[in-house]
Design goal:
By secondary structure, this protein is of the alpha+beta class. The relative contact order is 0.18. The strands form 2 sheets. It has a 5-stranded antiparallel β-sheet. β6 and β7 form a beta hairpin. It contains 3 helices and 7 strands, in the order αβββββββαα. Bound molecules: nickel (II) ion.
Length: 169
């Protein structure tokens, strides 16, 4: 198990679409364990493969860790099959330093995919878990929460990033 370096915006890998997982082998199991280590170490609620520079459709997340009873969830090739309602949540991202913003998403989602051993799974989620699932699946599609903000809010962040780069920080 190892903690992997997390790619930061504006790394182009974060804006690249990830490919379906087809080989469920030992290398994948090791990669999933490394992703989990990386997420818990950060710490973060979720992590998508793009964020560690791998372009396969793998997400890990754990919304129970905050209550001190971690429960690792892994989904390969996740896709949202149903969504309804609306939730506005203040989101951050391990790939976007020192910035968070309110993002509007579906309040409830149904996600289908495979578990880490390739067995089909269906998950119905609401609230925070629904937000995390949509955020991580966005990553696999090359989208960051920044891409879901108004142009004005996004430009505030970009300007701040530019100023920091100019200051050499
Ligand atoms: Ni993220």
């Amino acid at each position: 198990m190892a903690v992997l370096p997390i790619r930061l915006f504006p790394d182009p890998v974060l804006h690249t679409q990830a490919q379906e997982v087809t080989d469920i082998d030992g290398a994948l199991q090791k990669f999933i364990d490394d992703m989990a280590d990386t997420m818990y170490k950060a710490p973060g609620l979720g992590l998508a493969a793009n964020q560690v520079g791998d372009l396969h459709r793998v997400i890990v997340f754990d919304v129970a860790q905050r209550e001190g009873k971690p429960e690792l969830m892994v989904i390969l090739n996740p896709r949202i099959t149903a969504a309804d309602g609306e939730i506005i949540h203040n989101e951050g991202c391990l790939s976007v330093r020192d910035f968070s913003a309110e993002v509007r998403r579906s309040a409830r989602v149904c996600v289908e995919g495979l578990d880490r051993h390739g067995k089909p799974l269906t998950l119905t989620a609401e609230g925070l878990m629904a937000v995390v699932l949509q955020h991580e699946i966005d990553h696999l599609n090359g989208l960051l929460f920044l891409d879901r903000l108004s142009r004005l809010k996004r430009s505030l962040y970009l300007r701040r990033l530019k100023k920091r780069a100019e200051a050499g920080g």
